[in-house]
Amino acid sequence: MSSAEENLRAHHIVQQSALPAAPMAMPEQVLSRRWRGFLLRPFLQWLALR
Amino acid sequence: MVTLRRAASALFALAMALTASYLAIGYFDSDGLQWLDLARVVLLALSTAWLAWGAVLALNGLFSLRRGRVPRLRGPITVRTAVVVPVYNEDPVKSFSHVAAMVKSIGRTSFASQFDFVILSDTTDQRIAAKEEFWLVRLKTEVSHICKIFYRRRPSNPGKKAGNIADFIKTSGALYDYLIILDADSLMEGSTMVEMVRRMEADPQLGLLQTLPKVIRARSFFGRAIQFSASYYSPIYAQGLALLQGTEGPFWGHNAITRTRAFAQSCGLPQLPGKPPFGGHILSHDFVEAALLARNGWKVRIDPDLRGSFEEGPDNVIDYAKRDRRWCQGNLQHSRILPAPGLKRWSRFVFVQGIMAYVSAPLWALFLAASIIAPAMTVIPDYFPAPGLPVFPKVETANALALLTGVVGLLLGPKLLILIDGMITGRNRRFGGSIRAFCSVVIEIVCTSVLAPIMMLFQTRAVLEILAGADAGWPAANREAGRVSLSEAWAASWWVMVVGLITIGAAYRLAPDYLIFVLLVAGPQVVAPFVISGTSYAGQALRRAPVSLFVTPEELTPSQVMREQQNVLVRWRADTVELSDSIMAEQSEDPAEARTSR
Fold first, then answer.
1. Closest to B47 (Cα-Cα) out of B417, B410, B448
2. How far, in Å, CA of B282 to CA of B289, rounded?
3. d(Cα B569, Cα B563) in Å, to the nearest integer?
4. Which helix (H) or strand (E) holds B360?
5. pLDDT of B265-288, one tens digit each?
6. Which residues of B423-449 are buried (b: 16+ CB within 10 A; e: fewer)?
7. pLDDT on residue B184
8. Are the beta carbons of B268 and A26 separated by less than 8 Å?
9. Do strands B309-312 and B178-181 pair parallel, antiparallel, or not at all (unpaired)?
10. Spatial CB neighbours of B135, under 8 Å, sequence gap ≥ 6
11. Which of B136, B168, B173 is facing A17, going by the closest CB pair?
């Protein structure tokens, strides 16, 4: 096999290695607690009543 | 049962901390209690609780009934599994030789068609990326008739390794029921992969199953000490951990299998608000992923009985400290995730453990500093509290000795118990017999005692740097690193030597009575460059010694996949040399072309 053929074959092998498409959802997880809201909520409720 | 075991273990650690505090107060009180003494007591209590927790893992592992056979599916395997190998600027000859060996190994089972191998490259160095493509062709030419092999390279690497795997799941995850997640230096027997799938299939609620990888291929004295330690002690500690954690186990980021659906549903990691080191991408993502799987009701388990799972480790102190710096940042970053909603209590405790693993170093350092300063702050005792004969303060030397014995006992006791257990059960035979195992344990303890004060300073510095806002980044792991010259060791650790000298000077001046104890800690620090350089050599000489040290079962009888990988690597390396020679020859024959091609 000539060098050009060899290169073409190598290129073909690399191209063939691409990942097959089969998407899957991966939702972003909630890691933060809403401290501010938690602390402010009673105050805001009290304010709303006024 | 798990809750009871956890409570008993926590009580043991607490009892040890209280006993240490009681003894310390008795001793410090002999010359009057100062505010600094109270600080010392708190520091000692925290450090002792941490030491006791380590010991309790070993005790749980030793004094537990061995688990019976875990449930596993029998018969043919119909599910599909992707063996995922993330790479990042690593030597492709080395990492692809691991893939080749594992493909051949899975080929020796009857289920090769159910496994695909996926190389996920995050390589940013263009030269290494070109080499990856070259060696991919070689890899596929040799083994693609056994399994499908896929390769994909991301142009940039957002999210680092976690982002790399998430990208794969989002692109192609739906094809696979399970993912076996590896590292570039991981090695796993095909039969182990099949067994992992069988165990996952037997329990539909099992989200992730972690193996206990054995460290292999260490060459230096330091590397072999770590390798022996991982092979000899770790299975016992892991057994203890497995019993305490129940179904809220660990994920160590590699050499594990996960249910794709569970992982996709639970482990999409957000970026933390703010800048690194505490904000940005989650560095130690594995602990967080395990916690999130447990939060969503999936079981996470470690099965220490699974054999045929291997990894490589750092071969010198500098590379170990670099890895530690990264892990330290990742673990301290977990303080941001600690209050995340819905996490299991044990998951939060695991985060605290991870943080304590590094914070304990500055705590010990502070305790040492306070102990040197404290005698200088002692008030002159009142020998005549009442008219008449003088009253001399009672020095509670017995308390000090009991305290010292207790701390040393917590440090060494578990190791010696594991040695005795090995003698009784015959486990030592796999480590070359009880005499060799005894010699290895003694030398390992000496080695650890010398290295611990040096590592304490490296870890203290890492914690302080991170608290000051310095980001370690994510350098590629140096898996082929070898010996460290004295000048390299000096550049990395001159400051450790300076700290050691200052400590000795301060102890000589302020607390001469404690000088001998201070020397045990500061002495190794003063000779740190020599220790770091010296332990990076002479690994193989240990095997040739009259009583060969640090022998492991993996060394005595390497598994088939290890031998296969070594054969492939030697063959490919030889070809690399030939290729380089031929390129050099071509260049020397045609210098004009060589110039233009540059």
1. B410
2. 10
3. 10
4. helix B345-373
5. 999 999 999 999 999 999 999 999
6. eeeebbebbbebebbbbbbebbeebbe
7. 96
8. yes
9. unpaired
10. B92, B93, B96, B572
11. B136
Please tell me if residue A37 touches chain B, with a CB cutoff of 8 Å.
Answer: no
Chain A residue with CA closest to B267: the answer is A29
In a domain, B568, yes or no: no
DSSP string of B135-186?
Answer: HHHHHHHHHTTTSEEEEEE-SS-TTHHHHHHHHHHHHHGGG-SEEEE--TT-
- B149 part of contact set with chain A, CB < 8 Å: yes
Same domain, B123 and B266: yes
Does the pTM surpass 0.95? The reply is no
Whole-number Å distance between alpha carbons of B292 and B248: 10
A chain contacts of residue B261, beta-carbon cutoff 8 Å? 24
Cβ-based contacts of B137 with chain A (< 8 Å): 9-10, 13-14
Question: Helices then strands (H, E): number in chain B?
Answer: 21, 10
B131 with B30, same domain: the answer is no
Strand partners, B116: B82, B148
Q: Residue B191's closest CA among B309, B72, B73?
A: B309
Cα dist from B69 to B47, B66, B117, B303, whole Å = 37, 9, 29, 11
Residue A20 to residue B141, Cβ atoms within 8 A: no
Domain final residue, candidates B520, B544, B568: B544
Helices H / strands E in chain A, number of each = 2, 0
ipTM tops 0.85: no
Q: Comparing B379 with B171, which gets the higher pLDDT?
A: B171
Distance CA B59, CA B55 (A): 6
d(CA A31, CA B4): 29
The predicted-structure confidence for B6-35, as pLDDT tens digits, reads as follows 999 999 999 999 999 999 888 888 777 788
Residue B388 within a domain: no
CB contact under 8 A, A33 and B140: no
- Residue of chain A minimizing CA distance to B270: A28
Range of the domain at B106: 81-353
Cα of A50 to nearest chain B Cα, Å? 32
pLDDT digits (tens, 9 = 90+) for B473-508: 655 555 555 789 999 999 999 999 999 999 999 999
Domain count, chain B: 2
Nearest-CA distance B196 → chain A (Å): 23
Max CA separation in chain B (angstroms): 105
Q: In this structure, what CATH number is given to the domain that contains residue B190? A: 3.90.550.10
Residue B591's pLDDT is what? 43
Mean pLDDT of B80-94: 96
B465 within domain boundaries: yes
Q: Are B43 and B365 in contact (CB under 8 A)?
A: no
End residue of a domain, out of B508, B525, B544: B544
Q: Classify residue B580: in a domain, yes or no.
A: no
> Could you read off the pLDDT of B537-560 as tens digits, one per residue?
876 666 666 567 899 999 999 999
Q: In angstroms, how far is CA B39 from the centroid of its own chain?
A: 31
For chain B, positions 207-246, list CB contacts with chain A under 8 A: none
A14 and B CB contact within 8 Å: yes
Helix (H) or strand (E) holding A30: none
Residue B173: closest C-alpha in chain A: A24
Please name the residues in contact with B533: beta carbons below 8 A apart, sequence gap of 6 or more. B483, B484, B485, B486, B488, B489
